[in-house]
Amino acid sequence: MGKSFFQLFAGKGGVGKTSLAAASAIHYASMGERTLIVSIDPAHSLSDSFEKNLDSEPTEILNNLFAMELDAKKALKRESSLTKRIHYFMRQAGLHDIDLLETLPGIDEVMAYDMLVEFIESGKYDRIIFDTAPSGHALRFLSIPKYMDEWLKKLYCVMRQVLGTIQIVKKHSRIDIPSYKLEHEERDRMLKIYQTLTNPKRTSLCIVMIPEKMCIAETERLVAKLSSYGFQAKNIVVNQILPKREDEFLKSRRAIQQKNLEIIREKFKGFEIKELPLFKTEIYGVNELKKIASILY
To answer: Of 42, 168, 189, 222, which is the most exposed, with the fewest CB atoms less than 10 Å away?
Structure first.
């Protein structure tokens, strides 16, 4: 398995995860690391952030920097180890409409995860950065490694039962029934990926938030849930902090933020906390993202 380092940005919707992930990708690429940033948010905004059209294959943004927006439907049609086996056994069972797979609950996340496994195994990149979806969707995606073993176990069990029945009915047909060896190879492959993504020496998980009470509460829940999946978050970026101003409205809003910042520092004592200002202009394009990177790093 490749020795890439993995960095995940997670948090509530609208807190600036994409901009921070993109800025981090620019930073590490500038340091000489071959970097891939992947958006796994169905409502992609990475293209907007880089001002460049992206798709499901890595697109070069800068020297050492590549970006992609993952499309689970396209991932389903790729010839990965898992999809080839699923498609093959479906045809063995006489099911030729592969698009039927798209209707299975959770198949989007499973196929998206399988696609990421390919990049992880390839070893082509020094660093892979994930721009995740808002908290709920991100948790569902990140929970896949934990439950993938049971999913694969049931999948192979069903395939053996179905194909075994077809073998009995079609006595003169040659049906290739998946072996237990094949099943364990796939399950071991997924287990290794899970162990890699939950290894703090290989993976860093950064929580992005803004200094508001509702966001603090959601971040606490997110950190607890991630921990239950085996992901240990150690870094927090508090984004969109208002500057000092004499205007009464802004003074009032800043006072609220400063009070919430004190709560954040107290609640997340064991974390490395970085604070970023609210910029006076929208952040998009490589030059603007570099401004964030210069403050972050």
So the answer is: 168
Say how many domains are in the chain.
1
pLDDT in tens, 50-78: 999 998 889 999 999 999 987 766 766 76
pTM over 0.90: no
How many angstroms from the chain centroid is the CA of residue 64? 20
* CATH number of 190's domain: 3.40.50.300
| Cα 18 to Cα 33, 141, 255, 265, distances in angstroms | 19, 17, 27, 23
Domain ranges, residue 254? 5-296
Residue 99 carries which DSSP code? G
The 8-class DSSP code of residue 34 comes to -
Report how far apart, in Å, the C-alpha atoms of 284 and of each of 45, 49, 50, 133, 294 are.
10, 5, 6, 18, 15
- Give the span between the Cα atoms of 140 and 72, in whole angstroms: 14
